[in-house]
Amino acid sequence: MRLNIATWNINSVRLRMPIVAHFLKKHRPDVLCLQETKCRDGEFPYKRLKRLGYTHIAINGQKGYHGVAIASRLPLDTIGKRNFCDKGDARHLSVSVQVGGRAIALHNFYVPAGGDEPDPQINPKFAHKLAFLDEMSQWIAAAKIADNPAIMVGDLNVAPLETDVWSHKQLLKVVSHTPIEVEKLGRVLNSGPWVDAMRHHVPHQEKLYTWWSYRSPDWAKADKGRRLDHVWVSGCLQPGLGGLRVLKEARGWERPSDHVPVMISLDV
DNA sequence: ATGGTTGCTTGGCAA
What we know:
Number of domains: 1
CATH topology: Deoxyribonuclease I, Chain A
Order of helices and strands: EHEHEEEEEHEHHEHEHEEEE
Structural class: alpha+beta
Number of helices: 7
Largest sheet: 6 strands, mixed
Number of strands: 14
Radius of gyration: 17 Å
Strand content: 25-35%
Helix content: 10-25%
CATH class: Alpha Beta
Strand order of the largest sheet: 3-4-2-1-14-13
Shape: globular
């Protein structure tokens, strides 16, 4: 059985429901993980998603900020919503997906962006980001999450490789690509036998982006992107890794998110 | 060095 999973930072799910529907009709992933839904659970567009065939829905919403959700054509059971850093932010949601008589854990994350100043002493948002990444690695290791069939996706807000940004040198002091963040994300990757599924398909020498700023008048021409969105699978799922698609064209859709969908397929 | 855009809301903050 082949499982297709998509992850997309949607930057307001209500505003962007037309392009979410377009994406689902065209690509039909089995499961769609969303970040930055920016609405309360009661305001989430359940009905539209159910009509599109995504009848199994799990949400961790919040008014105006953050918010993660998982919409699926396959049965889901919610596992949890971890309250990272005791902040009460809706930044994590985990479910168990029933596929081919097997249960696979799926974790959906929205890591704090971290503000502009890459100094935790003077920027509390950056300190929060670093603490969040530390808690991720400690918790994932302690709970041995990657020792069982597991997938983690989301906007991790860190571009770890030199080829994950348009200019390694020019972004060394820009939040998302600073050495401390890259090191801490590396520790999360080492919190278990994880495989970076996107880089499993695309050589490290090759540029790969999932986000282009709104502040660029011609994002496609400038192409100053970053790979902020990630898909990792536990080692036991690696043999099943199939295709990868980063839907760059979605950045050019009407009223786009600044992130594009990332899709992977997996034989389970 | 700075400003550039967008969303949630209607005054700034967050990204």
